[in-house]
């Protein structure tokens, strides 16, 4: 078998597998190497996102949301549920099946596009004439040679100092997705995306959840009008978020954990829980890659150094996704993967960081694209604002979910949309409209003049755009 390739992609997460497929579509001979295996020992492409991140967390969020709807909201629709119970084992089995289906889907796409897949840990060996040698540690070790290399090795969870994950009591997102029974008390360290989503899952199922966040403000990366509305909703749900909590020590035993911390007033406090989820961020993953063998430069964070087009310091080696600068988002990695494959083929790959959406899949959902009001203030940029609440939207009232609002920020001179921020039902879907609008440099007036179907949640975007000019029709 010829082990020489036009492109070798290291990593089969969202960035890597998409890069491999796009390169193959462009006529290149492509290999993709990924080390992930399922518990049954079978290959599990899809990276963190598919195996222990985006996909399984959304499966559990959906299951837990269904349970909460049945428990607390079905009665208002005239639906009687009787003795309601959650079978956690069945919920986890469903989650695992969702993950497995995605694994198998990626392997199918590799076969369809003639991408040769190798399941093992890839390491650079050396530069050779016309490319680079990559060894794959697997059941049967192989050596590959690629003219071009795309590094897409993703990221790893960041642990607290001196507190290793045992995935029984001290949990990463991996263990938090596999808790066998609903804990009575659950602590979460970090009120970011992962902490809020996983905290929400187990809070809905009956756990008493407390989230400790070291920062003094809630979701500082989110537009603060949106963050404030979300915090009100979480407080109402009894998802407790304590801000300004500086963790000093965590004592963990098989029986549970005691977290010692300083609160926002400087007072020493302790929190006892059955389990703790540590969700304090992620770090770039280059474990086993052996970048020194080819002179690949890493920064002080351990990320691969790249330019605006994802070129590394070594000609012929590229890097994308979580292992480089920029937001650690699956869809950002996908866009970079496509762009790099097209650049290798001599085309002009394109990624616009200004129109990459962000989503937090809590209830209410939080989604945004573009700049926040606080960013515009810091930059000294003038702006106008229009907002519209879901409580004034007919479809939201029919759904029985009127929490939140849509906020549109526009340039006062050109009226171009600078940012759109949503907290409320199906925000993750609604934000796509804003991404499209901003990609085409739409003005708020452009959106205000478009006919939206009625009744729909999407009408809130039109009404918020109308509100920029202070002429909302339904509020």
Automatic annotation (TrEMBL):
Superkingdom per UniProt: Bacteria
Cofactor(s), by name: FAD
InterPro entries on file: Class-I_Pyr_Nuc-Dis_Oxidored, FAD/NAD-bd_sf, FAD/NAD-binding_dom, FAD/NAD-linked_Rdtase_dimer_sf, Lipoamide_DH, Pyr_nuc-diS_OxRdtase, Pyr_nucl-diS_OxRdtase_dimer
SUPFAM superfamilies xref list: FAD/NAD(P)-binding domain (SSF51905), FAD/NAD-linked reductases, dimerisation (C-terminal) domain (SSF55424)
UniProt catalytic activity: N(6)-[(R)-dihydrolipoyl]-L-lysyl-[protein] + NAD(+) = N(6)-[(R)-lipoyl]-L-lysyl-[protein] + NADH + H(+)
Cellular component GO terms held in the UniProt record: cytoplasm
Coiled coil start-end: none
Residue span, Pyridine nucleotide-disulphide oxidoreductase dimerisation domain: 356-464
UniProt keyword annotations, A-Z: Cytoplasm, FAD, Flavoprotein, NAD, Nucleotide-binding, Oxidoreductase, Redox-active center
Cysteine disulfide partners in this protein: 49-54
GO biological process: 2-oxoglutarate metabolic process
Cofactor: binding comment: Binds 1 FAD per subunit.
GO molecular function: dihydrolipoyl dehydrogenase (NADH) activity; flavin adenine dinucleotide binding
Pfam families to which the protein is assigned, alphabetical: Pyr_redox_2, Pyr_redox_dim
Active site: 454 (proton acceptor)
Family in the record: Belongs to the class-I pyridine nucleotide-disulfide oxidoreductase family.
More about this protein: The active site is a redox-active disulfide bond.
NCBIfam families listed in its UniProt record: lipoamide_DH
Name of the protein in question: Dihydrolipoyl dehydrogenase
